[in-house]
Structure formats: C-alpha cells, structure tokens
Specification:
Radius of gyration: 37 Å
Shape: elongated
Helix content: 25-40%
Strand content: 25-35%
Number of strands: 10
C-alpha cells in the first residue's frame, strides 16, 4: 500500500521502552485494545526499543494509551507519540510505512514455532542470558526461538511452547539468570496475534521458506549412434570374354 493511497484519517502511534520484553508486551496490548496494525520495532541502542502501530486516528490514540499503561506497569515507559495524518515524506524516510509489514511477512517465511505461546527473559549480560536459556530448555518442553540484543548490555532469550511449559521454563530461567548476573525483565504472552507473530524474531533454524518450483527444461533425447554393419565379401570371379564366333554358337 503506497502512502498516497492511505485514508485521510490514518495515524501513527509510537511507544518507547527500555526493554525488549516490555516492548513486546506493550505491542501485544496495543493490538488487543484497538483495531491497529503493528508495523514493527525500531531499536536505536542503549536498550531503547520503539513499537510502531498505524490505523485510524481514534484507534491509534486508544492503542497508545493502553500500551503506555502496560509499559508503565513494567516500569519501562520512556515516551509515547501519536501522529495524525502523517506526511508521505515522513513515511518514505522512516521505517513506518504499512508496506513494510507485507515485506517483513514475505521475508519471515513459515516457522515451525508458529501459533505457540511465547516467553521472554531479558538479562544484563550475555552469559546470564545463555544460562537462562539453557535452564529453560532443561526444565520444560519449550524451544529456543531466537535471542535479541538491544544495547546497554541487555539481551533477551525467547522461547516458545504451550502456556504451561512456557510458565515453568520462565520460572527456571529467572532463577538461573539471577545466579549468574542481572535479571532485567520477563514476559509471557499466552496467545499471539498474527501481527505480533510476524514481527517477532525467529532464528533461521526454525524457518521453512517455500522452495521455488523446479524449472522445467526439455529432456534431451539421447541419440543412438548408428552401427555400421559389415557386409559379406563377394566372391571374386574372373571375367571371361567370349569371342564373337563363340557367342553366335551359343545363340544357335
């Protein structure tokens, strides 16, 4: 969808937090509280993450308000913004255009972890995150989907599985992270909406991109080499020339 075709009452909503699990939980609340589309996330370093949604002005305002309340509960809200009727130039430069959603969905491919609950543990320090991920995998039937690094020493392990298994895994991961380093944030989302599903990171190990159809090429016909047949040798007989007188006698 090009910017020139967007409705005149469209708007952009942005919420920034200082945690990746917090921004995922905030985005989830925005999607569930109003009819908006999640464009994606923007990470600018130092742990700052921004979720960007778009839709009608009234819906975006509601989504941003509810999302900001969720971020405040986590103690991670940095700022919020609603831009009614954004200019085409703004959308052309910043990663906020609605067409980016379609591109992201095409590039993401199908994941074997789709339609599962998600759990996130954020630590300050890579060893604590790896230790937490190991504890989660050993404590419950979950799969490590990916990890995310947002700067300021913050990194997040993301696991997927059933709600019960994810809850057990997160509990074990939190204890392990606190033993090794600093536990910064955690999040469990039981039911993922499609928009959130498409924007979450998934390691290439889990992706099943559709393979292109094989190109059909004409099969070359193998031509058999003609065999040369050996002809039997003709018996050589001497040519006898008869005299005219002998020829007349033969005729008579």
């Amino acid at each position: 969808m090009k910017s020139s075709h967007l409705p005149s009452d469209s708007a952009l909503g942005l919420i920034s937090t200082h945690s990746f699990p917090a921004i995922v939980g905030t985005a989830d609340m925005m999607l569930k509280s109003a009819d908006v589309t999640l464009v994606g996330y923007e990470k600018i370093g130092s742990g700052h993450c921004t979720a960007i949604v778009r839709g009608k002005v009234a819906n975006v305002r509601l989504a941003v308000e509810e999302g900001a309340k969720t971020a405040e509960k986590f103690g991670q809200l940095i700022s919020k913004l609603v831009i009614p009727r954004p200019m085409p130039n703004l959308e052309a430069v910043f990663p906020i255009g609605s067409h980016l959603v379609e591109i992201a969905q095409q590039q993401q491919g199908y994941s074997r972890l789709s339609n599962r609950s998600i759990g996130l543990i954020e630590t300050r320090g890579f060893p604590a995150m790896v230790g937490a991920a190991d504890a989660m995998l050993k404590s419950a039937d979950v799969q490590l989907a990916s990890y995310e690094i947002i700067g300021d020493g913050l990194c997040t392990a993301i696991v997927r599985g059933s709600v019960a298994n994810v809850a057990v895994a997160i509990e074990a991961g939190m204890h392990e992270a606190e033993k090794i380093g600093e536990l910064h944030a955690m999040m469990i989302i039981p039911r993922l909406l499609e928009d959130l599903e498409h924007t979450l990171p998934v390691a290439s190990y889990w992706r099943e991109d559709q393979e292109p159809l094989p190109m059909l090429m004409p099969t070359p016909v193998k031509q058999h080499q003609r065999e040369v047949l050996a002809l039997p040798e003709l018996e050589k007989k001497p040519l006898v020339m008869k005299k005219p007188a002998e020829i007349e006698e033969t005729i008579e």
